[in-house]
Specification:
The protein has helices at 80-90, 108-121, 137-142, 165-173, 186-195, 204-208, 211-228, 240-249, 260-264, 269-273, 286-297, 313-316, 333-342, 348-362, and strands spanning 7-15, 21-29, 32-37, 49-52, 57-60, 62-67, 92-97, 125-128, 130-131, 149-152, 179-182, 232-234, 254-258, 303-304, 379-389, 408-418, 421-425, 428-429. It is of the alpha/beta class. The structure holds (4S)-2,6-dioxohexahydropyrimidine-4-carboxylic acid (DOR). (4S)-2,6-dioxohexahydropyrimidine-4-carboxylic acid is lined by residues 68, 100, 182, 279-280, 307, 309, 325-326.
């Protein structure tokens, strides 16, 4: 690997680990943050690149802990290169990717294949989940490196669906690796699909896969986690009922996340964008939005993930229920959340905590999630002074659309840095930069 040229970022508003913003300079060398000070004199002006960050805010790079990047097998929707370019544009410097690719990521061999593909084409850092299937239980314990075991309790078909309680219990009972669950009760969904069969209005999706279906699965996962004291993470929590459950009962070893779309979109969005608003778990009511926001502000919800799950416009144009569930998100998540901060619903420091610091801590990723000497130089410079409305034409994800088209957002990344290298600058991705495989072995940070 070639060692990148040192970078000196001058005159930035730097978000420090104490949550305070202070003006200063940051020196990056050999992929690490070397020095942070009110003013740094360039050590050797000829062999260093200087970035004038006047008017910009420097944040730790976003770590997106739930994405579906479709490679191998579904590259017509997205691939690791296009998705990682979209990450760079969105200020996402690391991602954790899900196993529902083809073949499924359920063995050491399929994991190794993904790692190799990512090493050759990802412009940001990468980590992968291993998927739980009935046949491959030993791999769940031994495959490395993985950020955790992904269990689809519902909203899945084929080998990745684990909807039998005894099998679920076997997975919780053995090992100590993090288990991340997509919590929806498949049995209830199945019954309700039959009940509402024939309805093609996509809004019915939120009634079929209703709040109760999500709550029941989350309750079951929580119960098993408590029984075995097993590290559990609830993916894309979507309902007020689950947030209340977590507020009352969440043990120290359980974490949960929410997506920007479950905070900022709701069932009224079906009228706006139809099946483009269809995802699993589905969008909920404005009341759910409000309760999830409060739970995030109160620390009941630990962090934010996008569940970036691209499908082509052609696929999305099918009538419900033949339209696939999922929407892209890595390009817009940081700007969406920073816009909320600009509007006073939270602080910039909270956004960085939810989108970077808390994720690094939960997944035990060493030296990431903060701007501090010795930490990895994964950073994003954002502009909170200007607003820009997202257009379809500028979307970098291969799917070529976003549910947030037309949304006027601030906090867009101006420069994204991965491992001390500029990977995105003023609208352009530097496609020759490569990220690295993440490690998941930090001592408690
Ligand atoms: O809507 C969704 N689509 N939710 C998921 O969890 C999976 C995803 C996909 O892979 O398309």
């Amino acid at each position: 690997m070639t060692v990148p040229l040192p970078l000196l970022i001058q005159h930035a508003q730097i978000l420090h680990p104490d949550g305070k913003m202070r003006p200063g300079d940051v020196l990056l060398r050999a992929g690490k943050i070397e020095q942070i000070a009110p003013a740094i004199t360039p050590p050797d002006p000829d062999t260093i690149r200087i970035i004038d960050a006047t008017g910009l805010i420097l944040l730790p790079g976003v770590i997106d802990p739930q994405v579906h990047f479709r490679e191998p097998g579904l590259e017509y929707k997205e691939d690791l290169f296009t998705a990682s370019c979209a990450c760079a544009r969105g200020g996402v410097t690391s991602f954790l990717e899900m196993p529902n690719t083809r073949p499924l990521t359920t063995t050491q061999a399929t994991l190794d294949d993904k790692l190799q593909r990512a090493a050759s084409k990802c412009v940001v850092n990468y980590g992968f989940f291993i998927g739980a299937t009935a046949e491959m239980l030993p791999d769940l314990l031994d495959a490395n490196p993985v950020c955790g075991i992904k269990i689809f309790m519902g909203s899945m078909h084929g080998a990745l669906l684990i909807d039998q309680a005894d099998l679920l219990e076997q997975i919780f009972a053995k090992g100590d690796r993090l288990i991340a669950v997509h919590a929806e009760n498949q049995e209830r969904i199945k019954q309700r699909r039959e009940e509402f069969a024939g309805i093609t209005d996509p809004a019915i999706h939120s009634q079929i896969q209703d709040n109760q279906a999500a709550l029941e699965a989350t309750q079951l996962a929580l119960q098993l986690s408590k029984k075995y004291q097993r590290r559990l993470h609830i993916l894309h929590m979507s309902t007020a009922e689950e947030a209340d459950l977590m507020r009352q009962e969440k043990p120290a070893w359980v974490t949960c996340e929410v997506t920007p779309q479950h905070l900022l979109m709701n069932t009224t969005d079906y009228a706006r964008i139809g099946t483009l608003a269809q995802m699993n778990p589905p969008l909920r009511s404005p009341h759910d939005n409000a309760v999830l926001w409060q739970a995030l502000l109160d620390g009941v919800i630990d962090f934010i993930a996008t569940d970036h799950a691209p499908h082509t416009l052609e696929e999305k144009a099918k009538d419900y229920p033949n339209s696939p569930s999922g929407m892209p998100g890595v390009e817009t998540s940081l700007a969406l959340m920073l816009t909320q901060a600009a509007q006073g619903r939270c602080t910039v420091a909270q956004v960085a905590h939810w989108m970077s610091t808390a994720v690094a801590k939960a997944y035990r990723i060493p030296h990431k999630g903060a701007i501090a000497p010795g930490y990895d130089a994964d950073l994003v410079l954002v502009d909170l002074q200007n607003y820009h409305a997202l257009t379809r034409a500028e979307v970098l994800s291969k799917c070529g659309w976003s549910p947030f088209e037309g949304w006027n957002l601030t906090g867009w990344p101006v420069i994204t840095i991965v491992g001390g290298q500029v990977v995105y600058e003023q609208g352009k991705v530097k496609t020759d930069v490569r990220g690295q495989a993440l490690r998941f072995d930090a001592e408690a940070i």
